[in-house]
Amino acid sequence: MDQKELLRSKKLFLFDMDGTLYLGNRLYDFTNELLRTIKNTGRRYLFMTNNSSKSVEDYIKKLEKLGIAATRDDFITSSQATAHYLKLHHPDARLYVCGTMSLKRELEREGFTVTENLSDVDCIVMGFDTELTFRKLEDVSRLLLTRENIPYIATNPDYVCPTEFGSVPDCGSVCDMIFNATGKRPVVIGKPSPLMPKLAMAKWGYAAEETAVVGDRIYTDIKSALNAGVTGILVLSGETTSEMLEKSGDKPHIVLQNASFITDAIG
Ligand SMILES: [Mg+2]
User: What's the whole-number average pLDDT of the chain?
Assistant: First the structure.
């Protein structure tokens, strides 16, 4: 199958956002036409994000500001995947959440009890916590060191999150702080784990052969595609350069200068 045929055989596109559809606060000029073409040809797309500091509602507002119309059903987030994982493996667990109010609300909305009363906690959830305090670090350390084998889950492994001035520490960095104190590592949910692509396929009824992940990072986006057994499409419109691609042991199925080439193939 040549590249165009392979692209045409895809029915579900899972898009990374920053570096793929926009950069910072600047929408790429091809994005709206791409999304329209996917819809108009009877296909589906979802925005797939590791960022658990924002709720789906926050993301809808952010995309709206950039000029993309979106609804709740257009997203697959690491918060949703975390809730799904918890339902499967720790149903009815009462959660200690080291995360934002948005993440707590999202997990409560899925039916979980969130508590700060440590003796009530059954499970720890780490998010990208832009509201982090030392108190939370102490609580998590105490739980891990005093409650043997307490389930410990992190929404995403990213060490840093890009900002307009560079980077700030993300969930993975905070988990390293906790590791230094406790020697414990969490189960990690977001990309490069296959959980988000798998959940998206199961939820919307698509097979692996019909599904592609489109993103600008090999070690998260493309790795999640490879781990889930779906097509990985790397775009060079964000973080990854040709040199980085050459050096990487993980090879995407398709490499595009940017995502507008998908429009050309399926339109
Ligand atoms: Mg990206």
Answer: 96
Q: How far apart are CA 267 and CA 262, in angstroms?
A: 8
DSSP 92: T
What are the structural domains, with CATH classification, of the chain?
3-50+191-266 (3.40.50.1000), 91-188 (3.40.50.1000)
Grouping H, G, I as helix, E, B as strand and the rest as coil, residue 252 is coil
C-alpha–C-alpha distance, residues 17 and 50, integer Å = 10
Which of the four pLDDT bands, split at 50, 70 and 90, describes residue 172? very high
Ligand 1: centre distance to CA 84 (Å): 23
For residue 48, the CA-to-ligand 1 centroid distance in Å is 10
In angstroms, what is the span from residue 20 Cα to ligand 1's centroid?
6
CA 149 to centroid of ligand 1, rounded, Å: 34
Q: What is the pLDDT of residues 58-113, one digit of tens each?
A: 999 999 999 999 999 999 999 999 999 999 999 999 999 999 999 999 999 999 99
d(CA 22, CA 12): 20
Distance 256 CA to ligand 1 centre (A): 14
Q: Do residues 123 and 93 touch, judged by C-beta distance below 8 A?
A: yes
